[in-house]
């Protein structure tokens, strides 16, 4: 065999080795991308520094907990018209403002709170109806012939006619209704016309004088859509004097059961006064480890501005209790004092780790309150 022939036979073997090496390197890279971050995270977790009681927890997180104010109003659309708001003497249609609590969890101004703080119209009494009473009111005062650009002005002008049982102030080009006069007694001495054609003409005129009123068709209830819409969401910081920072809704948990949402400052920047955020990486996400009898510490704004406002600005409050019931995977029960306004408050264990987001309780009695376990808040930020 010649030297040239031998070289040609060996060449495929060298190419095969290169291919195998390339495949091996590719596999290593893929596995590295998939597993190295997980391994790194496992062995490089931030060390949990256990805080010593509620005072230390309060001092660390008081600036991270904010008072949330959400104002919303109802918008009306008729037959697919551009939505509009009306200003009438009816408290149902006035803008509504609710208050809640939230807490910073990121350097770009993300704030964890409750879903019912981010979209309050989906909870409470308003979920039990579709604003049918308002639709019926509008349908009773708005004629079908009114132009779309005149809907708002016409409804506002005629809103109270619904309560008075009157028709709206409706004007349209039409003939006036002619009322027949009461017939007079004929004088026996009067000359009676013998022309039959005249008598027929008079009788005909009398009949034509009785004209029925024109029927007015009104808008149908099914043509009316009423939708709640945010006017403004803003937050105030601990120690501020009602300096409100505007926010937007960033993300909301899927489903009605998990009452958690994330807001974000419009500036997307953490305020300079907030030195410690609530670190979701250190939160207790395995809720099976949260046992009844362990401490639960809530920092928030129960009663909103009623309790928060002081001579030295807005002040957050802290309350302590114990876990009363094991987690069911969604919520925890505890006996920490809480009421309206504390929705969205962080609930910590005795070390200062987040264990839940406060969301509900019983108005009739204290000591029966609930929080969504922390893993659901952490899932929204990932």
Secondary-structure blueprint of this entry?
Blueprint: H1 3-43, H2 53-61, E1 65-78, E2 96-104, E3 110-113, H3 115-118, H4 132-141, H5 151-158, H6 161-164, H7 196-209, E4 224-237, E5 244-252, E6 261-265, E7 295-300, H8 305-308, E8 309-310, E9 313-314, E10 317-325, E11 331-334, E12 346-348, E13 354-361, E14 369-373, H9 374-381
Antiparallel strand pairs: 1-2, 1-4, 2-3, 3-6, 4-5, 5-6, 7-10, 7-12, 8-9, 10-11, 11-14, 12-13, 13-14
Average pLDDT level: 84
Shape descriptor: globular
The run of helices and strands is HHEEEHHHHHEEEEHEEEEEEEH
Rg (C-alpha, Å): 36 Å
Task: Please estimate the helix content.
Answer: 25-40%
Q: Strand sequence of the main sheet, in spatial order?
A: 1-2-3-6-5-4
Structural class: alpha+beta
List low-pLDDT spans.
172-195
How much β-strand is present in the residues? 15-25%
- How many helices does DSSP assign? 9
Question: Would you report the number of β strands?
Answer: 14
Biased composition (Low complexity): 193-209
InterPro entries: Peptidase_S1_PA, Peptidase_S1_PA_chymotrypsin, TYSND1/DEG15
Keywords: Hydrolase, Membrane, Protease, Transmembrane, Transmembrane helix
Biased composition (Polar residues): 179-188
Describe this structure in words.
This protein has 9 helices and 14 strands. A 6-stranded antiparallel β-barrel has the order 1-2-3-6-5-4. A 6-stranded antiparallel β-barrel has the order 7-10-11-14-13-12. Strands 8-9 form a two-stranded antiparallel sheet. It has a domain at 53-131 and 224-381: Thrombin, subunit H (Beta Barrel). With 382 residues, the chain is α+β, with helices and mostly antiparallel strands. The chain is globular. Residues 179-209 are annotated as: Disordered. Residues 179-188 have a biased composition (Polar residues).
């Amino acid at each position: 065999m010649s030297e040239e022939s031998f070289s040609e036979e060996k060449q495929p073997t060298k190419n095969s080795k290169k291919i195998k090496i390339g495949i091996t390197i590719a596999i290593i890279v893929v596995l590295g991308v998939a597993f190295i971050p997980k391994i790194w995270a496992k062995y490089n977790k931030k060390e949990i520094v256990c805080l010593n009681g509620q005072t230390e927890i309060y001092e660390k997180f008081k600036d991270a907990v904010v008072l949330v104010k959400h104002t919303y109003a109802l918008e009306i659309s008729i037959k697919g018209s551009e939505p509009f708001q009306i200003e009438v003497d009816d408290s149902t249609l006035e803008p509504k403002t609710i208050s809640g609590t939230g807490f910073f969890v990121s350097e770009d101004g993300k704030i964890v709170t409750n879903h019912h703080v981010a979209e309050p119209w989906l909870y409470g009494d308003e979920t039990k109806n579709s604003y049918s009473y308002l639709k019926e009111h509008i349908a009773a005062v708005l004629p079908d012939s009114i132009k779309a650009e005149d809907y708002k002005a016409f409804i506002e002008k005629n809103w109270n006619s619904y309560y008075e049982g009157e028709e709206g102030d409706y004007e349209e080009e039409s003939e006036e209704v002619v009322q027949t006069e009461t017939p007079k007694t004929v004088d026996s001495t009067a000359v009676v016309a013998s022309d039959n054609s005249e008598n027929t003409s008079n009788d005909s005129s009398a009949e034509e004088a009785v004209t029925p009123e024109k029927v007015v068709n009104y808008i149908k209830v099914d043509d009316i859509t009423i939708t709640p819409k945010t006017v403004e969401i803003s937050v105030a910081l601990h120690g501020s004097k009602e300096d409100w920072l505007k926010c937007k809704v960033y993300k909301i948990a899927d489903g009605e059961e998990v009452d958690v949402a994330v807001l974000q400052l419009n500036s997307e920047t953490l305020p300079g006064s907030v030195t410690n955020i609530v670190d979701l990486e250190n939160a207790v996400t395995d809720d099976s480890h949260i046992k009844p009898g362990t401490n639960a510490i809530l920092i928030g704004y129960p009663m909103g501005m009623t309790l928060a406002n002081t001579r030295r600005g807005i002040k957050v409050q802290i309350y302590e209790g114990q876990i009363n019931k094991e987690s069911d995977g969604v919520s925890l029960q505890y006996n920490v004092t809480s009421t309206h306004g504390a929705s969205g408050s962080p609930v910590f264990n005795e070390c200062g780790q987040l264990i839940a987001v406060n969301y509900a309780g019983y108005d009739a009695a204290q000591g029966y309150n609930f929080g969504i376990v922390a893993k659901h808040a952490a899932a929204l930020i990932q």
